[in-house]
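Box S2. Input/output pair 1.
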Amino acid sequence: MHWLLWALAVDMCLALGALLVRKLGFYRRLVHFALCAAFASTAGILSAPIMWACGKRASVNWVVARTFYYTTRVVLGINVEIEGEDILQRARPCVMIGNHQTMLDLIMLGRVFPMQTVILAKKSVSYYPFVGWFMRLADDIFISRGSKQSASGMFQRASAELRAKQVSVWFFPEGTRGRFADGPDLLPFKVGAFLLAYHAQVPVVPVVVMDFHNLHNSRRFWSTGGTLKIKILEPVSLDGLAEDDLKPVMDRTRESMLVELKRISPPRIVH
């Protein structure tokens, strides 16, 4: 109990200090974010035996996602509004792709992530405390960057799961966080998500989250609550295409996501 009192006292001091020094408020919110993530991951670990018994192992991710979202909505004051959520229900199984901006993308995932969906992540993530633990329990897919053998195995395994288990996959096609000083934009897409969907014979569902600049900017030590808008676009079918046709489809999908990103993003404020 003493440690809890100390933690509350420190948090109160940081809250008071944040009134004078912006950085203190920023780092205080990062600590709250990390605590919410640890809490949600623990919930996922505890739920794993139940999900396994129900034959819904991949839904451990859903438990973590919703726990994290509803916790951060209270603690960080970020609410998510989704347009087109019904599309995910009728398009599954599928490969979902989304734009990648900050670590706060986890809040977006927390709200939009459907049941029976796995995550593709770097192999190093599997060793992270809490996060890596629940991801292993959820049977998520870990790949080694730059390893052709790992990528080939990943596509084979993910394709089999999509077809046999009716499990969807989440993918960030940019491959890394996109940070743009001049306004919302997207990095070039990597073809992996479309190859995966092609081999699994499932559609690609684009998910667009608005520009985070007004809610979170690590370069300016700015973080606040507010509303995060998400738009889910119509599924992109790859039926009847050859593998050589994937890049033009990928480029058109990226362009449609960029148009939507600019539409739903508010004008940037000066921090």
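Box S3. Input/output pair 2.
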Amino acid sequence: MPAPAEFLQFIDSNADGFIQRLSDAVAIPSISGDPVHRQDVVKMANWLNGQLKSYGVHTQLVDLGKHTMDGQELSLPPAILGRIGTDPTKKTVLIYGHFDVQPANKSDGWDTDPFTLVVHEDGRLIGRGSSDDKGPILGWLNVLQYHHQNNKELPLNIRFCFEGMEESGSEGLDDLVRKESQPGGWFNGVDCVCI
């Protein structure tokens, strides 16, 4: 089924804002595998949580505990759980994504600063996380923005699970998924998962 013309027009008229939002996300060096950047991963979680809430998503930042990295005990970055829609007549989709990134330095072969989004002359958006996985997460935000600003009902219920440790083995995620899949949990009643 093709996207409605109204939605495509919304995308075109908001493209600059969407690109700026991606630029803002790319600028946060949320490198989960580097203890020096742990607070950047937490900053990214808080930024994303605020974005979700601004479009009517009920969210919860979940403490995943601690782990040891490079001889230091560190708090794991929080996972973000979100919920929008509770209509029992609609299907419920769980959307998974991660907001952490791999390390990147210009000396690794980047033509530009990896944490500064560049719009290439051919239209590509280049920056660490722009395709894995901040960009795809922000695509969902763009959809939420459309529905929110136009007072359009979502055609389904959505649950979100966004984590900040995927690039480092998703520490803490297994226990969270087991817990939240139980009756009364955030994932209870989910019909399918979109990764």
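Caption for Box S3: The radius of gyration is 17 Å. Strands lie at 58-62, 66-69, 72-75, 79-84, 92-98, 118-119, 125-126, 157-163, 192-194.
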